[in-house]
Design brief:
Number of domains: 3
Shape: elongated
Distance between the termini: 77 Å
Strand order of the largest sheet: 2-1-3-4-5-11
Largest sheet: 6 strands, parallel
Oligomer: single chain
Length: 350
């Protein structure tokens, strides 16, 4: 069978797969030099590719650097203020460059992440911004193997990561928030973490622990509750903290969405903020200042992180090197009205 090299790429992939007796996914793996294909099958597919002049067409996709005008932004979900803050900064940078942003939400599902990766490798993109725990499915390795420029935002497993990353001083943020609560007189400080398999979540917790240890306050494991990023989890974990025999007088939430859940749970218990309970969040998303009372929180420069990540990526797309592969922006504590001195327990309405 002789394939027409003038036919579309997708059709050609289907024809190659049919001729080789394999799936188009298997053909894509061979084209993109990914594992998971037997040696004989790989050789058979490679022979068909070379016979039908497909290698040249595939390589041309990578040589059209800057021609598609598309940038992929891969995020965990579309409902978080954190992601929206990053996206605002990214969009600001791309308005000047003329690039269009393609947003893909994985909803923390590894199969969906792999689906995005396959689609992205089969189509044209100038570069990728990763805003997810990307180490789980080997996305950076696949992108590097294909020479696709990318920048990772936020979590990374190792400080020696070889690819470009941008983040913020998460440990310092956790430390500063806890230290502030201690300065107000709190000794029973509950913390609701984000998932602890993430480096950023562990960094918040490490900052919390360090502040307590420096103040000579014993760390009570019952006050440490692992959660996720979502409002509903903030509600559940707050009720669990309040049900302790010796509940906290302050709660440090892993992000502002969780802090919103803390507010809801306290409202359900007729517990006032900050008179009966102090609350601190993390991120300083757009709605934090409009909460009632306005939320004290750790400010992450989300818009600036997005803007800098986009500008780093544009430099890579243009073929320039970066001044630094790793950028870390400063966090800061934003004092509002959700914290005060601790009240005496037992808590009424419990």
């Amino acid at each position: 069978m002789t394939l027409d090299p003038k036919q579309s790429k997708r059709l050609t992939m289907v024809q190659i797969a049919r001729e080789a007796g394999v799936s188009t996914t298997t053909v894509s793996k061979v084209l993109n030099q990914l594992p998971g294909v037997g040696a004989q099958t790989r050789a058979r597919i490679q022979q068909l590719i070379e016979q039908n002049d497909y290698v040249q067409n595939h390589a041309a996709r990578h040589l059209r650097k800057g021609q598609s005008g598309l940038i992929d932004l891969v995020i965990m979900r579309l409902e978080g203020g954190y992601d929206l803050g990053i996206m605002h900064g990214v969009q600001d940078a791309f308005e000047e460059s003329g690039h269009r942003l393609v947003v893909f939400a994985t909803n923390e599902d590894e199969a969906t992440e792999r689906l995005w990766l396959r689609r992205m490798l089969d189509q044209s993109t100038d570069g990728v911004l990763l805003l997810l725990p990307y180490e789980q499915v080997g996305i950076p390795n696949a992108l590097m193997a294909q020479n696709i420029p990318f920048v990772a935002i936020g979590d990374r497993n190792e400080p020696t990561t070889t690819f470009p990353t941008i983040g913020s001083t998460i440990w310092l943020g956790g430390y500063t928030a806890t230290e502030y609560l201690i300065s107000l007189g709190h000794r029973r400080i509950g913390i609701i973490t984000c998932p602890l398999h993430l480096t950023t979540s562990r960094a918040r917790l490490a900052g919390y622990r360090e502040a307590l240890e420096r103040a000579g306050i014993p760390i009570d494991p019952t006050l440490i509750h692992e959660g996720n990023y979502l409002l509903g989890d903030g509600v559940r974990q707050t009720h669990a903290l309040l049900n302790l025999p010796d509940p906290p007088t302050a709660i440090f939430a892993g992000n502002d969405a969780q802090a919103t859940g803390v507010y809801q749970a306290l409202y359900q218990r007729n517990i006032r903020i900050p008179e009966d309970m102090s609350v601190i969040g993390f991120d300083d998303v757009m709605y934090a200042a409009q909460m009632s009372p306005p939320l004290t929180t750790v400010h992450q420069p989300l818009v600036e992180m997005g803007r800098m990540a986009a500008n780093m990526l544009l430099r890579l797309i243009a073929g320039f090197s970066l001044d630094s592969n790793h950028v870390e922006l400063s966090t800061s504590l934003v004092l509002r009205d959700s914290c005060g001195a601790p009240r005496t327990w037992p808590l009424f309405g419990k």
